[in-house]
Amino acid sequence: METTTTATTSSLSAPANVSNSGAIVPAGTSPIGTSAAASTPSPLPHPRLVTTSHDPTTGKSHISSDSTLAPFYPFGPTRSGFVTFHTSETVPASNSGTYTPSATTTLPRPPPQGTTFGVTDIPPGGMAPMHQTQTVDYAVVLEGEIVLLLDEVDERGKREERVIGKGEFAIQRGTRHGWVNRGTGVCRMGFVMVGAEEIK
User: What is the distance between the alpha carbons of residues 14 and 33, in angstroms, rounded to a whole number?
Assistant: First the structure.
């Protein structure tokens, strides 16, 4: 499939904290920025999150939270939305106490030694420009499809890319990459981002 990055990058601008030059964005800083030409908010329902904890008195497991979380739209209500379910400061993570998720108003960003779990909704025409993060990202497409863009260019000048469909997965290992939704519907991606060592 032919890449159309020229058209998208000329009409869609990245925020200032996104690197399009290949510079690595460390864990703990904003990893991506997205823009879109969509005209309506995401039609997908707000994600529901069920969280378990331990009863502090008995030590038995129980449901500590069952709620839906509204996406955060840092670039406007018709553009990409983000929901961060959980962030751990370190690995191994602490399972002590009770965790109650709450709406976040920041882009997903794992601490340098930690993890972040959440979802991103990218509307048709939306993209995350080429960027690089010091993380390992585990991603699954939950709805729609997304195109993963990489640095490699073939003899015809076409950038290496892969279409990842609903129910399919990707492991992004700190490489420079971008995402673009060329489909007709919203793409919802679930992801876990883990702070990683510097590439040597």
Answer: 6
